[in-house]
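If you are new to this repository, start here. Below is one unmodified record pulled from the training split, so you can see the exact layout before writing a loader.
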Amino acid sequence: MYKYAVVVAGLLLAVPAFAESPREQGGWELRLSSDTVNDFTPQIAYYLADNLSAVLHIAYDNIEAKIGTASDETKEFDFGVGLELNFGTSASRVVPFVGASLAYVRFEETDTTVFPTERTEISGPAFGLEGGLKFMVGERASVNVSALYSTGTFSQEFDGVAAADLELTRVGARLGYSLYF
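And here is the target side for that same chain:
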């Protein structure tokens, strides 16, 4: 988490001035964020109209826990697209926003703490909602805070054998930083 704080602090100190006005049609937004679901999520948004953007995100997590010589490793991959609506004018210093997304999510877990080693795979589509605030820092950057909700029905495999579908719902929070081009 320390390395992400250093990146965000560096970006805050080097606020660039690129386009004429953020959040207008034809503009771009590059986001770097961390949330309670994924450690690090880069996103890119293109403004289709003033205050309306199409968003692309990719997230990857790799969590490993060691117990003696055994380990439990979990990998998560998340790829999605969405739409986001910002409220306020280009002069607003605090900008409320809401968004919706569709994603493909895949979890893989390898557990060597048991014998024989167990492998679990879960994958499928997910639907997400997000709402929050963007606090403008200068003209071309913002610090973002939001609440997240996602839900989906995923197929499961245990050691290559199909199992019952799993319904999963997550609620979380996100903190991020955006640059506008």
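Two things worth knowing about this chain: The two ends are 26 Å apart (CA to CA). DSSP finds one helix and eight strands in the chain.
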